[in-house]
Amino acid sequence: MATKNLTTQEFEKAVSGEGITLVDFWADWCGPCKMFAPIYEQASEEHPDITFAKVDTEAEQALAAGLEISAIPTLMAFRDGILVFSQAGALPAKSLEQLIDGVKGLDMDDVRKQIAEHETSHQH
């Protein structure tokens, strides 16, 4: 499945659903973004079970600002509506594969438990 461009309006719906959604924040003037694009595109072909989305930070400046994207490319991974990874910098193909494996291997019950504990400890 090819990558899909997301607008600010589509973003929330795209990342809040079941399963895994990767989001690549990029811009046309960014060299590393251009180098990362074919790697990202290739991974999208190899993992049809994952949604590969892209956000053009020039076109969607409010979204990028709202997510505090300060460097591009930035890659975010969401699983079942939870942000589980966020990092700036273009990844080589091997690192992207490892990230995908890592997100697939997450114990989401454990992740939700950690989030709940984290939120509880910050309320006192």
UniProtKB/TrEMBL annotation:
Transmembrane segments: none annotated. The keyword Disulfide bond applies. InterPro entries: Thioredoxin (IPR005746), Thioredoxin-like_sf (IPR036249), Thioredoxin_CS (IPR017937), Thioredoxin_domain (IPR013766). Residues 1-105 form the Thioredoxin domain. The keyword Plastid does not apply. Keywords: Disulfide bond. GO terms for molecular function: protein-disulfide reductase activity. This is Thioredoxin. The gene is trxA.
